[in-house]
Amino acid sequence: MTNPSTTEASGEPAARTPSVIGSLRSWVFEPVPLARVAVLRVLVYLFVVYDMFLVIADPPKLATVSAQLYRPVRMREWLHLPVPFPEYVQTLRVVVIIACAVMVLSVFRRLPGWIPLTAGLVAAAGFTDWASIGMSYSKVDHDHFALVVALWVLPTVGLATTADRRTGLRSEAAGWALLAIQIGVVATYFLSAVAKVRFGGWDWVTGSTFAWAMTRRGTDLGRALLDPPWILIASQWLLFIVEVLSPLILWARGKLRYLMVAGFLLFHLSTQLAMSINFLPLVVCLMAFLPLEKLIRQKN
Amino acid sequence: MKRLSGRGLLWRALALAVGTLLIVNGSVYGNDTHWPFASMGQFAFRVGDNDSIRSTFLAAVDEDGNLQRVALSHNNIGIARAEVEGQQRNFILEPQMLSALAENYARRHPGSPELVQLWLCQDITELYKGRERGTSIETMVGWPANTLIPESLPEPGGEKVAVDLDAPENSRPNTDESTGQSGQESR
């Protein structure tokens, strides 16, 4: 947990002072319990299966619509991924489900290291393909960024099992992976504020964008918030301020950090109640801020 | 404690830096086509206090001559409202694209009468000082006949109604060139 003695290979320019490199290294590669990664893997890989049926559930339906509605994101073109057709998306989903099952199994049974690495990369590639199909019919959502990051970094940690709770074994690779997911979460919030200023202008907060949302898809509760207008304008201010301040959670520790996680969860709950949008993939990744290993009993 | 080798530290540090730059680029300069490094642009546009709120819907007459609203959902026509809105311009420029929606509908409702005339329309809510002042309906495009939506269109959730498309009041040409851009929300 203290700064490691060897810092030559940290990838930083040699001109920096060793103390800067050291503190950067101890932040980016802060050793965290492998058991935390084990629990997060169970949550993430089970959620991916849920996601393919209930969040980005549309690829099988999109695969049957006319190809003239297909507007591929650049990633699909660069990688020469095919125009979706039913057999392709159904096979893709089965492959990702199997890979996710292996990843969950690897938490409870000690498998050879190459198995979770391979399965994890298959799940990452397969789900990225799947999600990009959902984004290739002229509607792109930004709720999946942190989840896609999680899928690509979680396999790099190596073995992580429930047994690691007993030994309390910590790992720098685990710390890096969790930080990457956390940055993915914070990027989603903070860059939402950046996009609001970019597309909506600094006066986004005083506009009627939330009224637009509630009018188009508000629940009864959401529509009740339309009048008087100041309720939704105050909500816009609150959201914008929270998004701008969201990077603080990267440095917050202990109770403050948990309070911030609770605050974000409350925000996602309120959008679910007001307009049936919940950003669940982001909610799952918020768990990367919590000491999840405590869910495993110490003596198992 | 499990430490990383120098190489392990190096590629991870680089990957984190590159990934962070890519996602920041997405929101500062990028657009939707850069997914997964797209801009976090949902709800990022501004709607003014005196603007109108547009919401696209599909209306159709089936082969039995009944006029109805057709929900724009994956279950109903294979594609959702926001996705239709995302390429609404294409539908207006190439009205025959609506035939794809009719085909999707037929495939998903094998027992139902087929849709023979479709209109892409918008419910418009006018705001005044942030408050709803009135609502109206605008026809974006019709196919195969690009006419205005008949005024007997049922309310959302209402029953279908018989309509005579040959009647003069139901065959007025649609000359509106509005593209009705309505912003982006969520699936």
TrEMBL record, chain A:
UniProt KW keywords: Membrane, Transmembrane, Transmembrane helix
This protein's record includes keyword Transmembrane helix: yes
Bilayer-crossing regions: 34-56, 88-108, 115-133, 145-163, 175-195, 230-252, 264-290
Name of the molecule in the record: HTTM domain-containing protein
Source species: Kineosporia babensis
